[in-house]
Amino acid sequence: MAGNETKRPRRRRRRIHLSKLYTLTCTQSCFKQDHSRIGGPGYSRVVFCNEPDSPDADSSNYSDNYVRTTKYTLTTFLPKSLFEQFRRVANFYFLVTGILSFTPLAPYTASSAIVPLLFVIGATMVNNRRVKVHKGDGSFDSKEWKTLSVGDIVKVEKNEFFPADLVLLSSSYEDAICYVETMNLDGETNLKVKQGLEVTSSLREDFNFKGFEAFVKCEDPNANLYSFVGTMELKGAKYPLSPQQLLLRDSKLRNTDFIFGAVIFTGHDTKVIQNSTDPPSKRSMIEKKMDKIIYLMFFMVVLMSFIGSFIFGVTTRDDLMRRWYLRPDSSSIFFDPKRAHVAAIYHFLTAAMLYSYFIPISLYVSIEIVKVLQSIFINQDIHMYYQEADKPARARTSNLNEELGQVDTILSDKTGTLTCNSMEFIKCSVAGTAYGRGVTEVEMAMGRRKGSPLVFESNEDDVEYSKEPFVEESTVKGFNFRDERIMNGNWVTEPHADVIQKFFRLLAVCHTVIPEVDEETEKISYEAESPDEAAFVIAARELGFEFYNRTQTTISVRELDLVSGKRVERLYKVLNVLEFNSTRKRMSVIVEDEDGKLLLLCKGADNVMFERLSKNGREFEEETRDHVNEYADAGLRTLILAYRELDEKEYKVFSERISEAKSSVSADRESLIEQVTGKVEKDLILLGATAVEDKLQNGIIINLETPEIHSLEKTGEKDAIAKASKESVLLQIINGKAQLKYFGGGNSNAFALIIDGKSLAYALDDDVKHIFLELAVGCASVICCRSSPKQKALVTRLVKSGNGKTTLAIGDGANDVGMLQEADIGVGISGVEGMQAVMSSDIAIAQFRYLERLLLVHGHWCYRRISTMVCYFFYKNITFGFTLFLYEAYTTFSATPAYNDWFLSLYNVCFSSLPVIALGVFDQDVSARYCLKFPLLYQEGVQNVLFSWRRILGWMFNGFYSAVIIFFLCKTSLEPQAFNHQGKTPGREILGGTMYTCIVWVVNLQMALAISYFTLIQHIVIWGSILVWYLFITVYGELPAMISTGAYRVFVEALAPSLSYWVITLFVVVSTLLPYFVYSAVQMRFFPMYHGMIQWLRYEGQCNDPEYCDMVRQRSIRPTTVGFTARLEAKRRSVRRSESI
C-alpha cells in the first residue's frame, strides 16, 4: 500500500468516518448483568493506564515485553545444535564409536574417527525496535520495545508496527478510527478499520495525556485474535471495550498519521505470541524408511560383530600354537587363552567400531546439501515464474522435495486456487426474467462436448442468440455483462422496471466499499473487502446506478429517475450495517432514503435467503430458483437480493436491542447479535439473483468429455440437504459403495462423489468416516461443497491416515491453513486472499497450473534422485565395509583393519561423496518435456517402485557381491606370486592399497552406470574423485612414517611401479561391474520400467508416432480410474459405442 501511495501521488482516499460501517451502530455504553463477568475467572486482568509504575501495577507482576522468536540464542546454539544432530541415530552411533576410539579397544587412531564426525556435524549445524512512550509530563520519549510495561501510553505513527497489544484511545481522525494492516498476523492484505471509544477520541495531542488516568479490567491473556472483552473506567464512568478497540502486536498502522494507545498485553501475553505454535514436523516417507534401513544396518553390524567375536573367542581358547606370533603365553587380555570369553566381549566392541563403516557417516549431510540445491532449482525454474505478479515458485522447506514425486491424493481449494478470485458480473435474474448473454467457460466446454456452436439457449422466446457465442473480453474489470434490454438505460421500458430499479439500487447501496477518486481524470475506483463486492458496485455503476461518495453516515448514488427519466443524485442515510460472515451467509444495511422511508437491503446465499422471504415476497421465487440452478450449472457464484420496509417503531426496538447486544461483555455476545439481526432480517421481498463468474486460472482445463461419471450424491436438492441426518448420510454412503461395486467391477468406470458441508459433518463421525473413506477412494474425484476450514483439515487427516499414501493440499486463503498443515505437503497459492496460506505452506506457487510441473517434473526428478542416492549410499558402504569383514575372517578375526586409518576415515568424505551429490542434483532419467508428455511416469513415485524394499535389498546385494569379488580376486591374485621384480610378496599395506583402489574405481564407475543424464559436472566429480584418491595416497605416503604409518611411500615405491597392480585393478573393476551391467542391459531391453520405455521411445525416434505414444501411455504400472487414464478410457469407450451404432 505504501508503494501504491508513492506511485499515485494525485490519487486520494476520501477520509471518511466508518464507525457505523464496522460497528453496526454508534452505541452508548450499556451494562446489565453481563458486566458481572469482569473480575471473575478468565476476566481478572487489571491495567492502570498511564500509571505503569504505581504500587498497584507493580503487584500485578505481568510479563515484560521481551520476546525471542529465534530458535537459538548465543548460549543455547551449541547445545541445541548438538542435540539436533545427535538425536539422529547414525550420528549418535558415530559419537559413541568416536569416544571408544580413545580406548585400547579401537582398531584405529582416535583422530581418524573424530575428525570426519566433526566435519559432518559442523557442516549440518552450520530486535531492538523503538516506540514513543509517554513520560508522564505530557511529552513522549523513544524507548525500546522490550522496555514497555503494561499501562504505558504509546504513540505509534504511520507505517509503524504496534509494539504490544494496545487499547486504541485516539487517532489523527476526529472519531478515533485508524486503518490497520494485519498481514503479519493472518496474511490478509486488505486494511481493517479500528475505532477508539468516543470518550477518549479527543485526546489527539501529546499534552492531553498529562494527568490522564484510566482503569481497565479485561479478559486474561488468550490466543483468540478476534475476541476481546473488557471495560474502561474513566472519570467515574464505565465503558465497554470490544475487539474494535484492540490493536494487536506486529500489525501495522496504515493510512493514519498516528494513534495513541494504552498497553494491555505485553511479551508472551500478547495474542500473536499466544498463537505462535511450532509448525507441524513433517518428514518424507523416504526419510522414515531410511531410518529403518539404518536400523537394519545396525543389526547387520551387531550380527557380524557377534559372529566374529564368537569365532575369535573359540579360536583364542583352543589354538595356542597356530598364532604363536601373538605370544599367547604372555599376551594381554585381548588374546589371553585363559580369559577367552572376556577377550570375545572386547573383540565384539572392537568389531562394532570397525564395522561402523557400514553406516554412511556423510549420508545426512549429503542429503541435506542435495535437498537445498534441489530447492534452489525449484525456486529458479523460469517455467514456474508468474511474470504478471512477479512471483516465482518458492520452496519454503527442503525436507519434502522427494515427497513431491509420491503424491497419491491432491486436496484442493477452489476459489482463488483453481480460479482467479477475480469476479466478473455476467448474468442476473430480476423479477423472474434472466438477463445477460455472456458465456462462461463451463458453458463453452459443454458446447464443445455436444459439438454444437450454440452454447447457450435462452428460455425466453423473444431473445435470439447468434451462433457464435459472445466471448469478447470485457473492457471494464469486474463487468462482463451484455444485454441490450437493460443496458444504456433501456431497463426503463421493461415490464418490471420498478423491480429492476430496486435491484440495482440495492447493489449500489448494500456494501462496505470505499470509493477512490482520481483527481486528474475524476474516475472513481473502488476498494472492497472482497472481489464480489467490487463486481456488484461496478455492475451497478455500468448499468446506471453509480455509487460515488461515502461519508460516516451516508452513501451517495447517481441514478436514473424512473419518473422524470433524468439522472439524479440521491443520498441514503446509513443507519446500520449488518456484516457478512460464514455463519450468517448474508449481509444487510438499514438506510433511510430521501423520502424518509426506512429500508432493509439484504443479499445472501440462496439457502438462507429463500427461507426469509415473506408470503407476499415470493412472486418470482420459482423462476428465480430455476435461474439460480442454471447459473450454478454454468459454474457461476450466485446471491439472492431482497428488501423490506421498516416502520419507525420496529426500527427503534431493533436499535435498542442491537445496542444492548453490542455492549454485552458476555461470552455469548455474538449469538446475541445474531438473534437480534435474525429478527429484523425476515419477511423480505424477493428482487432477484446475481451471477458472477470467477474465471479459471490460465492452464486450468475443463474436461467434460467423460460420459460415464456417476454422481453418488446429488447435493443440488436443497430440501434433501436441509433434512440431512446421520442415518440418511450413512444410507447414501452404503448405497454408493454398492453402486461402486456393481458398476465398477472392472476398472472401466469412473465415478465422482459430491457431498456438501452438512452431510460431511455426519460423514466425518468416528463410526462413519472409515466407510466414507472407502467410498471416496474408489472414486476418480471427490467434491466437498461448502465445507468449513475445520472440515477441510479433518478430510485431509482422514485421507492421510486412512490410506497411508502421500497427500498434498493446495489453497490460497486463511481458511486453507489447517488443510495445508495437516497434509503431508502443503502448497500455498500466493493469490489475492493474502499470504497466510503461503506462510503456512511448504511450497508456494503463484498459479495452480504450476502444480503440474512441480509434481510431474521436479517431484519425479527429486524422488528418483533421492531414492537412487540413498540406495547408492548403502551400496558403496556395504562394498567398503564388507571387505573389512572378509579381511577379518581371513585373519581369524584379529580385529586388524585391512586399510590405513585415514583410508577408513576419508572414504565417505572425500573419495565417494561428490558423485552421489551430483547425481542428487543433476540426474534426469527423462527430460522435463517427456515428464509432462507422459504423466503416468509419475506413478513410479506413487507406487514407490524406486525405493521399495526389493530395490533397496537389490542394491545391498550388489554391495555384498561386489565386496566378495573385490576381496577374493585381489587376495587370490596377490597371494601366490611375487608382487614386483624384486620378488617381494605383498603384505597388508599392498593388499589393502590394491583393494582400496579397486573399491574407489568400482563405486565411482558404478555411479557412472547408474546415471541417466551426464553433465560436465558429473564427469568432473566422478573422475575427479578417482584422481583425488591417487593424489592423496601419493601425498599422504610422502609424509613422515610417524604420520603416514603403513601408507609410507606405499604407492610410489610399491604399487605404482608394479604392473600387476594396474592389471589387477583393471581386471577386478571389470569383473565387479559386469554383473550389474548385464542385469541392467537385460532389464532395459526386455523388462523396461516405465522410464526405460520412454527412453527407448526417444532413442528409437518414435516420439511423434501417436499410436506408439498411446501404447506407451497405456502401459501403466497399475490400472487406474483416476485422472488422465480414466478420461482417456471413457472417451475410447464412447468412440467404440458410436462406431457400433
From TrEMBL:
Start and end residues of each P-type ATPase N-terminal domain: 47-111
Topological category with respect to the lipid bilayer: Multi-pass membrane protein
The reaction(s) this protein catalyses: ATP + H2O + phospholipidSide 1 = ADP + phosphate + phospholipidSide 2
Pfam families, sorted: Cation_ATPase, PhoLip_ATPase_C, PhoLip_ATPase_N
PROSITE patterns, alphabetized: ATPASE_E1_E2
EC number: 7.6.2.1
Record's keyword annotation contains Transmembrane helix: yes
Subcellular location: Membrane
Family to which this protein belongs: Belongs to the cation transport ATPase (P-type) (TC 3.A.3) family. Type IV subfamily.
Name listed for the protein in its UniProt record: Phospholipid-transporting ATPase
Xref: PANTHER family: PHOSPHOLIPID-TRANSPORTING ATPASE, PROBABLE PHOSPHOLIPID-TRANSPORTING ATPASE
Keyword ATP-binding: yes
Domain (P-type ATPase C-terminal): residue spans on this chain: 838-1088
Organism, as annotated: Brassica napus (Rape)
Residue ranges of the TM segments: 86-102, 108-126, 293-314, 344-365, 873-890, 902-922, 952-974, 994-1013, 1020-1039, 1059-1079
Broad class of where this protein is predominantly found: membrane
Keywords: ATP-binding, Magnesium, Membrane, Metal-binding, Nucleotide-binding, Translocase, Transmembrane, Transmembrane helix
Domain of life per record: Eukaryota
